[in-house]
Specification:
Blueprint (H helix, E strand, L loop, with lengths): L3 E3 L3 E5 L5 H8 L2 H4 L9 H15 L6 E8 L5 E9 L6 E8 L8 H16 L4 E7 L3 H9 L3 E12 L2 E11 H8 L1
Parallel strand pairs: 5-6
Antiparallel strand pairs: 1-2, 2-3, 3-4, 4-5, 6-8, 7-8
Helix pairs in contact: 1-3
The structure holds coenzyme A.
């Protein structure tokens, strides 16, 4: 069965083999990938990424939700999203969003992030959800702030990301904080 989360304007659902072209499109666009810490550097990495995401959909104790964002109605692919639980830290989830440029600056990422917070705390009963972004990625930081996540600190220049040393800003929110936001 295909896993789905519905938001106001989007459907987040399991990826399928037909999404290969969409992920390739993201991977080949340096403007989209500039601040994204996911290694999709060639077709082989893209295929492996998609294959892992599809394999995960069949698991009973699912720890990873890598979902396509599709426009409600048209079904048009809008981007890649994820909520992933580290098996070593099962009370914590990480969220992330990578949209196609046509979908930028329309508050879609906030809509997606809020849906994942609802799902992560409400259904999966997580205790903490975090997101991270390149310190140069101001839109991404803004989205996390909009959704009520707290800035927790910066890991300085810890990885070479294609053309620069990336410093990563961490943002987090706890179940109790989300509950008081939703009240
Ligand atoms: C980062 C990203 C997820 C933001 O999503 P979004 O839906 O465009 O975000 P929003 O529309 O809520 O915009 C958030 C803020 O960034 C601003 N913004 C969005 N896109 C922008 C752009 N291309 N240039 C400048 N500012 C931008 C918005 O105006 C808004 O600012 P405000 O809070 O002051 O009004 C999206 O731009 C994206 O997918 N980028 C490429 C991949 C990426 O970097 N993903 C994040 C990896 S951590």
């Amino acid at each position: 069965m295909v896993f789905r989360i519905t938001t106001e304007r989007l459907i987040l659902e399991d990826l399928n083999k037909k999404d290969l072209v969409h992920i390739q499109r993201i991977a080949r666009d340096p403007g989209i990938m500039k601040y994204v810490l996911i290694w999709l550097e060639n077709d082989e990495q893209v295929s492996t990424f998609l294959q892992h995401a599809i394999e995960e959909t069949g698991l009973t104790d699912r720890m990873s939700y890598v979902l396509a964002a599709r426009k409600k109605g048209s079904g048009e692919f809008a981007g890649l999203t994820f909520l992933e639980i580290d098996p070593e830290l099962p009370s914590t989830g990480e969220v992330g969003v990578v949209l196609l440029p046509d979908y930028w600056a329309n508050r879609y990422a906030s809509e997606i992030l809020l849906a994942y917070l609802e799902f992560g705390f409400g259904t999966l009963h997580l205790h903490r959800i975090f997101g991270k972004c390149d310190e140069l990625n101001l839109p991404s930081a803004r989205v996390m702030e909009h959704c009520g996540l707290t800035y927790e600190g910066t890991l300085r220049e810890h990885v070479w990301l294609r053309d620069h040393w990336r410093s990563t800003r961490y943002y987090g929110i706890l179940d109790s904080e989300f509950a008081s936001l939703s009240r």
